Amino acid sequence: MNNILSIIAALVVGFSAMPAYAGSHANPCNPCAMKQVVNPCNPCAIKKPVNPCAMNPCATKKQVNPCAINPCSMKAPANPCAMNPCASGQNTPIRPKAFDNFREAAVAGEKLWNDESLGRSGMSCASCHSDYELLNLGKNQNFPHYVSMVDDVVSLDQMINYCMLNPMKGKQFEKNSKELTAMGAYYRAYRMQYMREHRR
Q: pTM above the 0.90 mark?
């Protein structure tokens, strides 16, 4: 009996003398059993704050750069100046149609050029301007230009009407009349004939 008690006592003493392991207090000699404390001297063990400079800009939602927009891909607004008003089909005529071509207008103008009944003076355009006289065609001037008899810069239509009112003592032609168009057409044909005959 005393031997059994001695054995039990020896075992109790022996167990109490054994070192503590897992489940007991951590053994400072066993690094694996220790709850590791972050070493402030080890930068790899420190939880790093987010570096805003290290963020991937490609992963962020980019703001639209207005300077990067391709103007060629934008739908251009309609340009009112680029619209063709002649294609609208709503044209207002200046007069009923008078001629089909230039020659027809020039032939009608030649008859008026020689018509003494257009005014009360008994003169026609040909009375002063036969054989290209008093037209200064040698100067090769286009209308409008300065005319000394009128003492002004006038268009061809204005010059024709000046002659109708003054030398011929008649009435001036309406600005959109077929007669004024015909007289202008004949003057052009008359001048072109002069240029052909006096070509150097």
A: no
